[in-house]
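Re: weekly structure request thread

Next one in the queue (428 aa):
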Amino acid sequence: MFTMSMNYAFGFSLFLLVLVALNIFFFYTLNTVGLKSHTFNVPSINIDLTPSVFKEIYDYLNYLPNQYKSINSKFALKQKNLISSFNTTKHDKTESIWSETQNWISEDSLFPHENGAAGKILHAIQTTQIALVDNAPKGTQLKLLLLLEGKQKIFFKPKRYNLNHVVNGNIYAGFDRHNSEVFAYYLAMVLNFRWIAPSIIRRIHLHKDIVPFATMGLKKTMIKNDSGSLCIYGKCFYCRKNETVCPDQNGEIEGAAILYLDKQFKIHKSPWRRSYSNRKMEWEIDNAFCKKVKGSMSTKLLLNLIDVAIFDFLIQNGDRHRFEVYKDQIILLDNGKGLGNPAVDELDILAPLYQCCMISPSTWQKLEMVSGGSLTNTIKQLAALQGQKLATEEHFKAVERRLLKVFATVQYCIGKYSRAKVLKNWLA
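Done, posted below.
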């Protein structure tokens, strides 16, 4: 009888232990961001985890919910409409296209992009006959200013590297990447960031498309290389005679053709700009830096800056030392410093996000929509409509990896301040 009572007591105690363990397990499951899946591994990338915030973000990365690694079914219709807008077979006369873009008035976008407008603009940029070519002297990098028939101006940033070239060094090292400009345009379209100039890859023949229409100023910056080919070194802050752009074996120069924005911008220095030296900026040593920024600009502009930081992080553009504003909206100009090294994720580009810990609900919704590979898959499809490849597979994988880190950064902020505060309607 005594033995039976002992067995009963032992069994009941064991039952209680199992019950407590199950309660602890379910409590943990409900109160963590999510368990790391067996198929998801944090890539082993050389990063500086000195700032404690970096380590915390990476901890959240390990526990991201599976929804951020899966395709969001709600994006299918948006993706279809977006591709349809770029996949237009009907090309109006360029005069009507230029007139529509120049006279476009909207509080939601810089240019028309729906009902096939985006595809028509890109087709016109890529194929319209060149009437005049000159140096575009403003800026630090070589670029040309093209005047197309119909009097539409285009910036042309020539190719400096092959797609598989890896730019080593600091985040702003190397020449601008022409493919980064075009990639950035498609990225902005997928994320519904409508304040960026349309851009597309175009190939122009040196002796057919440039020399006959070149200004005297441009011709003065043309020299022959050791092989006898006529090359261009241009006119800009860093332009040098020993750093020319030369045509390929077909006599052509490939580059990014970017629609010229003939608008008046307000120019501001970015609070999160870099020193371009070994000197640390205040934001790099003070994680409470955002408190000072909040007192110097509107909430709308700050949220806009955070959007831009997310955009720049995805392509690793760490060179946005200033920003241009039009109609109280930051314009995504000069995106050529992206796609440098697919193995590097400079997390400090996200400083506006993890220091301010605020993001507009609409931006967060856009990001959640393109999870699980939809972001880069759509960019590939948009580029394929023009028969173009904009980046290596390593770069596409890197963008998806960085998107997960954006998710983790927002989750870090939610864990620190609550979802209601991080995602509240700041402009209400």
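Residues 381 and 387 are 10 Å apart (CA to CA). The beta strands are 130-135, 144-148, 152-158, 199-205, 222-224, 230-232, 252-259, 266-269, 322-326, 329-331.
Next request, please.
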